[in-house]
Design a protein that fits this description.
Elements lengths: L11 H7 L7 E7 L2 E7 L1 H17 L39 H11 L9 H9 L4
Antiparallel strand pairs: 1-2
């Protein structure tokens, strides 16, 4: 005899707040403290949670290595500052913009104090006509 099993997934946020059973429409996957998580969310919560995760990812530094953080470098004796960066290093798409363009980009990207700006994000701004 054929059997049909129906699995319904409910929004984790709604259920935890009010005990309301709202069907989940999306799954948000993320990692935290070395563990991976899946958050089931409804249409009402997917946008704000994605926006917050995006904002936090723009503030964070990408992890290097094979899934492990590197130990902090050992302090070295101070040495005189260099006057120019070595050739081929330190040239990002953002660093090549003049001061006015950098200010316009930061307003457009809503990144007033980001320290690391990807070349892809700058290229998207350039492709949009440098608004």
């Amino acid at each position: 005899m054929p059997v049909r099993t129906v699995v319904e997934e409910y929004c984790d946020v709604c259920f935890n707040q009010d005990g309301v059973e709202t069907l989940a429409t999306d799954r948000l996957r993320f990692g935290w403290l070395g563990r991976n998580y899946v958050l089931l969310v409804c249409d009402a919560h997917v946008g704000p949670i994605r926006d917050e995760l995006q904002r936090l990812s723009e503030l964070a530094s990408p992890e290097s290595g094979a899934g492990r953080r590197q130990a902090a470098p050992v302090a070295r004796p101070s040495r005189p500052a260099r006057t120019a960066a070595p050739a081929g290093r330190g040239h990002t798409a953002f660093s090549k913009l003049d001061a006015d363009e950098k200010a316009r980009f930061r307003r457009w990207a809503d990144m007033p104090n980001a320290r690391r700006i990807s070349d892809a994000r700058v290229q998207a701004w350039i492709s949009a006509g440098r608004p």
